[in-house]
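Handout, section B. The chain below has 335 residues.
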Amino acid sequence: MSDWESDQKPGWGGAKSPPSNTRSKGDGEERLIERLVKSLQTEQRRGRRWGIFFKLLTFTYLFALLFMFRDPLGQAMAPTARDHTAVIEVEGPIAADSQASADLIVGSLREAFGNEAARGVILRINSPGGSPVQSAYVYDEIKRLRGEYPDKKLYAVIADIGASGAYYMAAAADEIYANEASLVGSIGVVSGGFGFTGIMDKLGVERRLYTAGENKAFLDPFSPEETEDVEFWKQVLETTHEQFVKQVKAGRGERLADDPELFSGLIWTGEQSLDLGLVDGFGSTSYVAREIVGHEELMDYTRRASPFQDLVDRFGIAVGSAVADHLVQSRLELR
């Protein structure tokens, strides 16, 4: 038997070492397992780092919310003990949920009048108007505070625009100042909406409205307009307009010119307003503080809405609400 043949028979001869390719396969598996273990350890460390990051982010967010709610009225700065002129901003549309709401403005007025170091108060106005109710609240409070603090004067200063409900507020001031190019007046009432009956007919949409009370669906934008409803609503507008005119006359008195167009809803320039008696002179906030009040240092008393509410508004919730209001409601406004 040849050597070759004896090598091929199983069971003969001593134990043989495993082939070299078997050893390489075992080493490869060990290295693969080692890499998997290291990869898992790396992922765990990475997961812990991200977990810490998100925990810190959550903590920062909660801390920011706590800071926002700590002072919901957000006073701009604390008044000093030095003599100064108090300034209160009336900016933008006048509404219960806006920066120019009666709650915020009245709170600012009370603080300014209550501080002995505030030698005079300026209501700096840049607003097209808005809610007659909010405007009336501020008007009444100005009158009350002027009676309680007779030695402290309140001046309204109109910037770009002081119209309708904003002028309603200004009429309660001791004096009103504006720029020659300011827009002033618009003493009138407006209410508007939309009717959708025509487009509903084209789309084949049927209106189903159930009420208890024959006038509960008054001025419903999805129902045909009724002549009686329109006439009634015009009476409401006329009554509100008369209230507006009455308060302006009470505030301005004999300074108003005898002009039939004065209360027609027209808006005037500052220069025209001086001739009509709607304003008392021309001047900025600084001018009034320096030349009229006699204390040039200005101190901001404006209370502002919660930063959280402002954040919500920035996300568009307020915009969506405003669009819906204009589409389906007939709101009464001084603008």
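Note. Residues 1-16, 69-76, 312-330 have pLDDT under 50 and may be disordered. Compare this with the example in section A.
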